Amino acid sequence: MIKEYLINNSHKHASKWLVLFIDVVITIFNFFLAYVIRFGITLNEESASLFYQIPVMTALAILSFLLIGSYKGVVRHTGMRDAYNLFLSVTVLICFTGFLMASSRLSLMPDILNIPISIICIHYLLNIITLTTSRLIFKYCYYYVKSKLGETSRVLIYGAGDSGLITLAAITNDSNRSLSVFGFVDDNTQKIGKTINGIKVYSSKTVNQSFITKNNIKEIVVSIPHISKKRLSEISDRLLKLSVTVKIIPAVNDWIDGKLKISQIKEIQIEDLLDRAPISMDNQNIKEELLDKVIMITGAAGSIGSEIVRQASYYSYKQLILVDQAESPLYDLQQELLSKGVVNFTPIVADIRDHERIETIFKKYRPNMVFHAAAYKHVPLMENNPSEAIKINVLGTRKLADLSSAFGVDKFVFVSTDKAVNPTNVMGATKRAAEMYIKCLHKTSKTKFITTRFGNVLGSNGSVIPLFKKQIQKGGPLTVTHKDVTRFFMTIPEASQLVIEAGTMGNGGEIFIFDMGESVKIFDLAKKMIRLSGLTYPDDIDIKISGLRPGEKLYEELLADTENTLPTYHKKIMISKHDDSNYDYIKEKIDSLCAMNLLNQDHQIVGKLKEIVPEFISKNSTFESIDKINKDSMNKQRKVLV
User: Fold this and answer.
1) Integer Cα distance of 134 and 95 in angstroms
2) In contact, 402 and 370? CB cutoff 8 Å
3) What confidence tens digit (pLDDT) does each residue in 181-226 have?
4) Could you say which DSSP state residue 152 is in?
5) How many angstroms separate the CA atoms of 278 and 128, rounded?
6) pLDDT digits (tens, 9 = 90+) for 580-597
7) Which positions ≥6 away from 598 have C-beta within 8 Å?
8) What's 252-275 look like in SS3?
9) What's the pLDDT score for residue 3?
10) Cα distance between residue 27 and residue 61, in whole Å
11) Is 277 contained in some domain?
12) Residue 443 and residue 383 share a domain
């Protein structure tokens, strides 16, 4: 019954008038106790006026508490501020009492109200001690009963510093969840074994499965400010092996009104563990570049395109032109922008392959900058549909680039991929061909054509992390193409900002390479995501090796074999020094490819694509036969020459 009462009434607080009544009763009892301490239990003739003074003291006590408002605090959340208010109330009361004593000695008040100064001092000290202690007793009794009789989860806080204390306060003061902090965990040997607010600090080395089981720990909250991703990954790897839920507090600047709320303490996500840089919108170069510009973004409803739109919307541009052929995602983006108060944008449903439609858009809006993010990007799908990949990734890019040049666009920023480097699939090869075309066009155009190249982005449509999450929800297994396959990862906001930044610094003709950090082994990523879900591999969820898909590489690259890089002022952006010298030949071949693509003959058009991109060697694909024919042909030519 007590348990149910606590659960049903945990959100309720004691009436402030009840708190005022209890404070007054304690104050009057202390007044009586002061006389007993001063004159003894039997009292004497000097204390005969006590019973006349009590009503007056009651009135003065009520007035003091009302003036300061110390009775308004929630008792279960008593803290230093509440103790300070009690101190002020008691100090005001002693001032009133001193005034009463002085007035009676000056015959301004009846002599019966003359309170001895020793009584005033004793009463003052008793009030400070007992009123503060009573609040703390009520507070800790509430939490003790709640933890013993209510449904509680024991929590460890990893980090015994200031942030850990703030986390303790957030957990302790929350009335909606029954949590009790069992202890702190810290690596600092000077703190281990000591207690903070009555809670013991344990060494991280002692926190093992037997410790967790013995003490019935359900959650561990990592509360270390400014923790590096690498350090967080090390801690989480160790903790996730235990049968507990691992959570993390947000960054200090994300706290609500400067205070940490328990609702902000979330389970650790895979994105928290991948070492990527934070994004800053206060970028002077971007501000100046986008000022009063008409900016056109293709693929505006996609993962990268929509984030470019979001980030561009922070700056003082003239108008955003959002082009995408996907109606529903474009509508969702429109509603999102409107909800944020962004109004100077125009969503347009259009296909970049439709020359007349896109030309109409250029004529009407006259964009100053174009961010071209529209593309087909799924490797296995494009391997089976090469003509469609060429229509969008090559033909679509060519038409958009030609129109940008014709209408005098200042800058054209092309979003490419690391799969364009030494491509082993159609998708990567089409992106490489598009890179080559716009670089050729740059030689004859006033428009500055800029290419950006980076790897996988976290959480993008079709990326591995959302796939793993869905597979975990279904109970597994997780599918990994190869045990040794690795990929580079970058967050969508980071990639999008670097695209905008590269567009800002580009003078035309460059291929900007983004620093993707360390590559991630997908098999290890899958195991970590299973542990993050509170499950174990392979007992709860298994990982199935499905084999490399058509066109898929084991390892992605950011630079081709013939390329090297130059640094820029941005430490995350480099410039490729690769040079396509035979511009007329490349442009002619790409024009020929686009014309041939209308025939929809896969092997012929992929063969032509391989002529344009000679480093394109198919893997796990039906188009490997073309490479074999080309290789045999080259061998025959060598024999003839010999």
Assistant:
1) 23
2) no
3) 889 999 888 889 898 877 899 998 899 889 998 888 988 988 887 7
4) -
5) 49
6) 567 778 888 888 888 887
7) none
8) HHHCECCECCHHHCEECCHHHHCC
9) 44
10) 7
11) no
12) yes
**Residue owning tokens 């980030």:** 311
How many Å separate Cα 55 from the centre of its chain? 60
Q: Of 129, 145, 161, which residue is a domain's last?
A: 145
Which string of DSSP letters, residue by residue, matches 492-541?
A: HHHHHHHHHHHHHH--SS-EEEE---S-EEHHHHHHHHHHHTT--TTTTS
Query: Average per-residue pLDDT in the chain?
Result: 81
| Burial (CB count <10 Å: 0-12, 13-18, 19+), residue 52 | exposed
Q: Is there a single domain that holds both residue 419 and residue 294?
A: yes
Residues 135, 192 within the same domain? no
Cβ–Cβ under 8 Å, residues 320 and 361: no
Q: Are residues 295 and 428 in the same domain?
A: yes
Number of domains in the chain: 3
* 185 and 210 inside one domain: yes
> Where on the phi/psi map is residue 438: left (φ > 0), alpha (ψ -120 to 50), or beta?
alpha
Instruction: Choose among 262, 339, 240: nearest CA to 537.
Output: 240
Kindly state the helix (H) or strand (E) to which residue 90 belongs, with its residue range.
helix 80-105
Cis peptide before 347 (omega within 30 of 0): no
Question: How many CB atoms are closer than 10 A to CB 40?
Answer: 10
pLDDT tens-place string over residues 426-475: 999 999 999 999 988 888 899 999 999 887 777 666 678 788 888 888 88
Same domain, 246 and 365: no
Label the pairing between strands 179-186 and 217-222: unpaired
Give the highest mean pLDDT range of 14-28, 183-197, 363-377: 363-377
Contact between residue 371 and residue 317 where contact means Cβ atoms under 8 Å apart: no
Q: Whole-angstrom Cα distance, residue 535 to residue 532?
A: 7
Buried b / exposed e along 168-186 (16+ C-beta atoms within 10 A): bbbbbebbeebbbbbbbbb
Q: Which domain holds residue 224?
A: 152-268
pLDDT tier, 327 (very low <50, low <70, confident <90, very high otherwise): very high
Distance CA(343)–CA(213), nearest Å, equals 56
Does the residue 463 lie in any domain?
no
Cα separation, 251 vs 256, whole angstroms: 11
Detail the DSSP E strand segments found in 303-381.
319-324, 345-349, 369-372
**CATH number of the structural domain spanning residue 302:** 3.40.50.720
Residues carrying an active site annotation: 419
Looking at the whole model, is its pTM more than 0.85? no
Asked whether residue 223 falls in the same domain as residue 306, the answer is no
Q: Is residue 627 part of a domain?
A: no
Residue in the structure block whose two tokens are 């009789």: 149
Based on the fold, state whether residues 296 and 241 are members of the same structural domain: no
Q: Specify whether the CB–CB gap between 435 and 414 falls below 8 A.
A: yes
**641 in a domain, yes or no?**
no
Q: Does residue 538 have a cis bond before it (omega within 30 degrees)? A: yes
Report residue 176 as tokens: 């909606």
Q: Give residue 323's identity as a one-letter amino acid code.
A: V
Q: Is the Cβ–Cβ distance between 150 and 7 less than 8 Å?
A: yes
